[in-house]
Every structure is written in structure tokens, then in C-alpha cells.
Design brief:
With about 120 residues, this protein is mainly beta. The protein has a single domain, classed as Ubiquitin-like (UB roll) (Roll). The protein has two helices and nine strands. The protein has a five-stranded mixed sheet with strand order 2-1-8-4-6. The longest helix is centred in the middle third of the chain and has 7 residues. The termini are far apart. It binds FE2/S2 (inorganic) cluster (FES). GO terms for molecular function: 2 iron, 2 sulfur cluster binding; metal ion binding.
Length: about 120
């Protein structure tokens, strides 16, 4: 009774956690506003911003409309979807879509439309 089986770091199904889910929250900075917040593992930049009370331009939230188009200044991301609505050239030039981009390190992006939520 009350016994805890397995490694306490394992999830509820007894499977060891792995990958980015075990990572610490990562810090995101938005330029030029200077807003800063943290993103939980697996959270998109847009979701983390909203949770912190910061509104970024967005519409579809699934990587197709490009309303959230921003530019990566530093850090790394991974996409939730295989084909976000960016060309190879745009990716190479540092553009990203925060609605489907999850931080893989502390990062800074340029998003001039960032605002505090009312
Ligand atoms: S909100 Fe549509 S691509 Fe990000």
C-alpha cells in the first residue's frame, strides 16, 4: 500500500521519460519588446507566450497561415509538424513559425507585434 514502483522519474504508465519531456523549462526572449518567459518542454513558443500573458500575432496556430512569422536571433527550435509553412530559404535565413516551433534551447526571436494581453 502506497508503494511507489519503479523509478520516480518514470511516467504514470511506468515508461521511462526520455527526450525533451525531461528537460528544464527554457527561456524565451522577444525582441524588440524585451518580454521574457519560460517554455515548458513540448510547448510551442506561441503557447508559452500566451501562458505568460504575452500575445504574439497568430491566426491558424497550425503552421500554415504565416501570421506568426518571426525571426530567430539565437537558440534552436524543432517543429511539431514536418512541413511548416516556410521555404527552405526562409528557414536558412532564420525565419520561424512560433505557433509550431518548440524551443530546444534558450532562445531569442524578433516578433515586433508582441503585446501584453489585456
Ligand atoms: S499562426 Fe498560422 S502559421 Fe503560425
Amino acid at each position: 500500500m502506497g508503494e511507489v514502483k519503479g523509478d520516480p522519474r518514470d511516467d504514470a504508465m511506468g515508461e521511462p521519460r526520455s527526450g525533451p519531456d525531461t528537460a528544464s523549462p527554457l527561456r524565451v526572449r522577444i525582441a524588440p519588446s524585451g518580454f521574457e518567459f519560460t517554455a515548458e518542454p513540448g510547448q510551442s513558443i506561441l503557447e508559452a507566450a500566451l501562458r505568460a500573458g504575452i500575445r504574439l500575432p497568430s491566426s491558424c496556430r497550425n503552421g500554415t497561415c504565416r501570421a506568426c512569422l518571426s525571426r530567430l536571433v539565437s537558440g534552436s527550435i524543432r517543429y511539431r509538424i514536418e512541413w511548416p509553412g516556410l521555404s527552405a530559404d526562409e528557414k536558412e535565413d532564420g525565419y520561424l513559425l512560433p505557433c509550431v516551433a518548440c524551443p530546444q534551447s534558450d532562445l531569442e526571436i524578433v516578433a515586433p507585434g508582441a503585446r501584453r494581453q489585456d
